[in-house]
Predict the structure.
Amino acid sequence: MNYSARLTALFGVGVALVQIQSAQALTKVEVSKVAQSVTVMIQNAQNPQDSGSGIIIKRDGETYTVLTAKHVVQQSPAYKVMTPDKKLYPMVEGLVQPLPGVDLALVQFKSIGSYGIAKMGDSAQSPSGSASFVAGFPGTTAVRSEPEYYFTSGEIAANGSRPNKDGYALAYSNPTLPGMSGGPVLNEQGELIGIHGRAERAERLQNSRFRDDIAVLKTEFNYAIPINTFSSLAPQANRYLGLKTPSPSVPSAPKADDFFLQANAKYEKGNLKGAIADYSQAILLNPRYASAYVSRGLVRNELGDEQGMLSDLDLAISSNTRSALPYSVRGVTRYKQGDKKGAIADLERAIQLDSKYAHAYLGRGFVRYEMGNKQGAISDLNQAAEFYRSQGDKKAYQRVLKNLQQINRR
């Protein structure tokens, strides 16, 4: 059976239920409610600790169709789907449909219950700097024993027209956790613009006299496959699901976002000079590309060019005053250079912009300690520890606790 025939068998001839339509921007709370109504957990029936996420995109009678990341459903022949009301349904056997060339798959489950259906957006209309929201069900940990819905906000860092490996072309600053792969990326209208599936964990370690190797500086970009890619690769799905998302156009020349994504890929392979060259090309095409300035600055720092990094951070802040990351990175750098007051000012600004930014609390705690404010340092490190704990980052949580023990003994 060929690909189109298999896809036809998966969907059947159902009524088109998903329609794209214009909508007004929603509040963050409203987007979270939308996401929660359509996001599901996909659990390995043979190993419940192995789980991912997905989003409901169609209902045909008692049959629901879920879009997820292909790697979420590759480890076992049997999975269960947990719906928003926390009911578990077996996945329909034999109808896991991987899409060719990308990290996407379609699965189904049957239920007489009534669940929400995602609204499809146009991922091409989410440029860098626009708001992004990611939802999913992080895997269980020693801290998190039961699966819980998790929702984060951020902004688009890059929206490339030339996908990287497995179709990933959408980068964003939202924090994510293991188990959220396959979950939705939504825009301000609560529309689906991508499927989350990959996280960048590139830590920049900074030395200190008492904090060991705890990481303060991270780019923390995450990646999704744009929903337009799904649309263009699944013409049969368009026919039977009624998807109205247009196929993405391929420009005659790469745009700034393409160079940004290409630079990230080079960095991950250890090609630092190549990454800097591509970040610079992205900035040449878009002189206000804040994420590119921050990323280029961090790579310059790894090559020993601290002043070059500070220059890039200044440019990032002037390009986008709403991002906490450049303030946090610049604050830690100023601390290293002995400018403690400047460091405090930057780290406090980062916290004002993002009240749950663990790295900023961590950095401010270290600076406060060295300025003689022991209680302020303890308060900040406790805040950082709590954020790491709630995020399930056990390694960072334990490191902060170790720092707290060292401070309390002094």
Notes: Residues 3-195+225-241 form a domain with the Thrombin, subunit H fold (CATH 2.40.10.120).
